[in-house]
Amino acid sequence: MSLNVPGLSADNVGYNHHVYAGKTEQMLKVTQYVQEKHFIPQELVQNEVSWFYGNLSIDDMYFQQESVETIASHIMSLYAAKILAYLKNEKSLEINLERETDDGAVYIHTSRAGVTQLTGPKYEVRMDAKYLNNSNKTKAYRLESFRSFGTVSSSLETTLRCYFIRQCEFVNKDPQGDEVNNIRLVSDKYFLEKATEHTLKVYESVMQQVLVRTGPVIEMYDMPGSKEKRLVIGFKQGSTQSFFSAMSDLYHFYSLYTTRKYVEQFSNGVTICSFYFNQVPGSKAPPLEVSIYQVIKEASLIYCIPTTPLQEYFQSGQLSVQEATYGYIGWIFAQHFLNRLGGDFKALSSILDGNNMNHVEVLTKIKKRLRSDTFTREYILDIIKLYPNLIKLCYTNFAMQHYINPPENNLQPSLSYQRLQTLPVLSDEELAQTIKKTVQNNHELMIFESYLAFNKHVLKTNFYQPTKVAVSFRLDPAFLPAEEYPTPLFGMFLVVGSEFRGFHLRFRDIARGGIRIVRSRNREAYSINLRSLMDENYGLAATQQRKNKDIPEGGSKGTILLDFAHQDKARVAFEKYVDSILDLLVVGESPGIKEKIVDLYKKPEILFFGPDEGTADMMDWASQHAKKRGAYFWKAFTTGKSQSIGGIPHDTFGMTTRSVHQYVLGIYRKLGLKEEECRKLQTGGPDGDLGSNEIKISKDKTVGIVDGSGVLYDPEGLNRDELLRLATKRRMINEFDVSKLGPQGFRVLVDEVNVKLPDGTVVDSGLKFRNEFHLNKLVKSEVFVPCGGRPEAVDLQNVHNLFLDDGTPRFKYIVEGANLFFTQEARLKLEKSGVVIFKDASANKGGVTSSSLEVLAALAFTDSEFLEHMQVKGDVPPQFYAEYVQAVQKIIEKNAELEFEALWKEHHQTKKPISILSDQLSVAIVKLNEELQRTTLWDNVPLRRVVLLEAFPKILLDKIGLDTLLKRVPESYVKAIFGSYLASRFVYKYGTEPSQFAFFEFMAPHFAKISQ
């Protein structure tokens, strides 16, 4: 937005000119100091000092901040550089003067207007890394930068740029309530001295918008009496990285330069940058009045992804910022989706026997090797860098589909749109042929074919939204190879931000699943997590699909992988992930902020997010943010919310644990075991949801716990009172009172080394010991309940460690609470050896049931009823809420009991492994559910009502009534409830291979009720 405010002049628009009263006296001292050093000829000293003080237009702030000795040193350095330039017969010279401290810095260097320095000190990159990126509410740095109007001497063309950085001293370091909106309270004291009233008004307006908006706020102002343009950009501290230096690359691309630029910090967590733009003299680029709008348009893309590995091509002008960012995202896509297994693997897998564990192990090893070795990240990037022109052509192909054409009445289409008109637009076939003719080998061809696949399958994107916080894409998953992803996905999202990358995958249109933060302790772990991210997400979503058999929604899952350098930015990454996906779900209606995008999907979409590892405390924000963004589905958008906004937190009420523990109790019941006498190992500690509630709800003799802080073990059983204390406070085992351990007990923390255990064993690395403790033959117990841990912690390559030397299993009974803790092959090998194991898709379904019933209540009540009956205000919940939570817990326990009994019965009848039966049972229920929704049974209204009276929670029926429920809950959702209830109850009772008369027998009681 361009604002031209009447009554302003160049003198009162920006900052007050700083005047240093002691400048003349200081100059005399500097002259005397330089003369005493005898480095510059005495007759030239006065001239050099005067030129430095008067002709370079260095801001008086420099002279006030620096000592006489420092200024004299800079003058002598400048003189030495001039002598060197003269000896080399050069018309310009290079000067780099700097002083850095913890409190601030000063940099002075030669600078050519409108040109990014590709070599040398790269001061702005250093400023970002050392000062600006790390600024926060408590410790922040402000920056002022000026370009000199004069040259370093009468004979040389070189101009200088100065940067002054100083630590902020805020008026109010901890503003509260309305104070956060008052710029005079949250500002740095020195800024308040320098800023004009106009600047204070401008910054306060931008600041207040930043506080309520997720992304950047960008405003443009005309400077009175000149062609200069002022761009003001505000954003939350820590929400982007290296933005200041990246902005220089952006405006240099359009032949612009700045006379002044500022970065101001505020104690309410806001950063505001201000740039004063001019056009490089003699430039052939479009005029400033046009270029500035393109800078505004692309600043949000810079904010999302400030730098990429293709930055050098952007800085040198070979690629635009949009082309370079597109190339970067295509690189990420290629890393995850190149078909690395190929036809040979498919042929080999069809020859080998899937039931032979040795064959399966060989295939698994080959698959992992192919995925990690064939196309490494570095190899893909090296090839992409060879062909910047192919990136331009692929980008044009992408842009022609998704760029929002300017309206016909727009007299000044954007430069990026004009640029598209000058590039050759090739058809898909022509582009494919051009790539084939350009690349040198098949590997290079495959990489650029992945760009074509990306373009072809993007259904919508926020790439061209005026404001955004991360770049998101809704993809048609049809490109996924069936040999790697056998069950087709319904939909997928790819999200890329400066701190993370993430996916969201779902198997049905209406689907539910958690959003997981994936952290990496070291670079090796990050590399592994990066390679496996898509496969892990797919596996989690598939598990969720099987797990969701009792509820109307299908399975979905979201993953957010934090970049290694941003392991502390989980909250920032989650908020960007959510907001950028909402860009694709909520139709934009705010010109210049959120506009309509090109939608090739052409159908409304709703996603349902739930809590998972690292996101349990973020569900409230996501729900309220969806409401603020205008999403009509905001109440149902997230589950596991806090009670104050109608949520049923899984951890508070132990929803997931109630399902897991029913399987443990079922094993005890069937085998006549006493819980108090059974020893148990547990991964996932008292600080987590599943781990803490497993401790609270169980009565066994827990011998070992593994959590993020380390290992706690006592073969005689850990002190239960101490465990309960930690579980109640949600603390890790590093706070366990070790005086309560037995003589053979020990605790080893991840940061410890060379720890001697009671049996004399020396642990070299506490981290390695923690990661592999479940595989350590030191521990043996009847029961193993993984409540946390990385996927595939036990696979075919290490499952042998779960057996003693004589072949006896170290654990007799395993209930897999953590998702994907075991691979299917490892489970089958354990079952073959006599271990009773219930897999995650069966055991760990309490949370999704709770989430589904939480959403049902949100759909069933009006806003006022929801406020009255579901939102907890104060310490005492509404009576309905308390009773509804109890009803949800009973439904979870009943569903778990029904499935346990069905699996136990089927296993003893067929002798099939429970791990196989679990999948077969899930598939049978999901398939029957979909078939039932398409049959005439749904059309039989009296039968429909009979079934729904059983399927809906009784407490909800008593409060609202069936007729009201049917009016308020969407029919598609009710239909799914109808199908999932009948399908699950039928399969639980009659198994996966019922007789042809079984369904008639099952439905007979329901038909009988119609006539009653």
Please report the distance between the alpha carbons of the first and last residues.
69 Å
Number of strands: 25
Specify the biggest β-sheet.
Answer: 9 strands, mixed
Derived structural class: alpha/beta
Overall residue-averaged pLDDT value: 89
The number of helices is 40
Spatial arrangement of strands, main beta sheet:
1-6-7-9-8-4-5-3-2
Strand content: 5-15%
Low-pLDDT residue spans: 1-10, 408-413
Cα gyration radius (Å): 33 Å
Shape: elongated
> What share of residues is helical?
40-55%
Key descriptive features of the protein:
1012 residues; alpha/beta; 9-stranded mixed β-sheet; 7-stranded mixed β-sheet; 40 helices; 25 strands; elongated; disordered N terminus
Structure explained in plain terms:
With 1012 residues, this protein is of the alpha/beta class. It is 47% helix and 15% strand. It has 40 helices and 25 strands. A nine-stranded mixed sheet has the order 1-6-7-9-8-4-5-3-2. Strand 17, helix 27 (689-697) and strand 18 form a beta-alpha-beta unit. It is elongated and about 110 Å long. It starts with a strand and ends with a helix. 45% of the residues are buried. Residues 1-10 and 408-413 have low confidence and may be disordered.
